[in-house]
Design goal:
With about 210 residues, the chain is an alpha+beta fold. It is built from 6 helices and 12 strands. Helix content is about 30%, strand content about 30%. Helix 3 crosses helix 4.
Length: about 210
């Protein structure tokens, strides 16, 4: 199926995962590290939801159907569709009474994370979340090393704003090592990013 963004000539082919395959991921062992980054995050969110820890979901994007083929009365095949509007960030939800909103990205670069992975409207959205005292961050996986980091949105803003003043157009991996929070792939949850949020946003005040 072809999905097109408004005012864009190019289209992106989106493959749907069968429902049975989606459910089977919970039966995979920890030794199977072949899951995609998105599957790992969705698996983690399912664990958080089932354990009553948090309610966090991947945001659906409104789609406008353009062409539908009816090979027979009992079936309809969507041949062409496009996204009605640009998406903001990938995930949002609630944890311990706080609104959470984050974006997940991957890069094949070994030494840096290109800022071209983001768009201005996403940055603006995350800034609005922060202004309302919500929690916003990015999850980044470097494919070459399989390193996963949580980086608070404020650090992303710093690099994003500087690039317009002649600054570099990527975030060095060394910056993630210094200011990000590395997450080791686990079992349940696969990517325990809420453990990081507990440390940086819900620190226990010692009396």
């Amino acid at each position: 199926m072809n999905f097109r963004y408004p005012n864009r000539k190019s289209s992106t082919t989106v493959k749907r995962v069968p429902q049975a395959a989606q459910g089977s991921e919970q039966n995979r062992s920890y030794a199977n590290r072949g899951m995609t980054f998105e599957e790992d995050i969705n698996h983690s969110n399912s664990y958080y939801l089932q354990s009553g820890k948090a309610v966090i979901h991947k945001k659906p994007t409104p789609v406008q159907i353009v062409s539908v083929d009816y090979p027979k009365r009992s079936a309809a095949v969507i041949k062409e569709a496009y996204f009605k509007q640009p998406s903001t960030t990938d995930y949002n939800g609630v944890y311990k009474g706080r609104y959470i909103d984050f974006e997940a990205k991957e890069t094949r670069n070994k030494t840096s994370f290109p800022l071209t992975n983001f768009h201005q409207h996403q940055i603006d959205h995350m800034k609005q979340v922060i202004d309302q005292e919500g929690i916003s961050f990015i999850l980044v996986r470097f494919k070459s090393t399989q390193d996963i980091y949580l980086l608070e949105a404020e650090h992303l803003f710093q690099y994003w704003d500087q690039q317009h003043d002649g600054g570099r157009k990527s975030i060095p991996k060394t910056y993630f090592d210094q200011y990000g929070h590395r997450i080791t792939l686990g079992y349940n949850p696969r990517i325990d990013y809420l453990a990081i949020i507990d440390r940086i946003s819900f620190q226990v005040q010692k009396g």
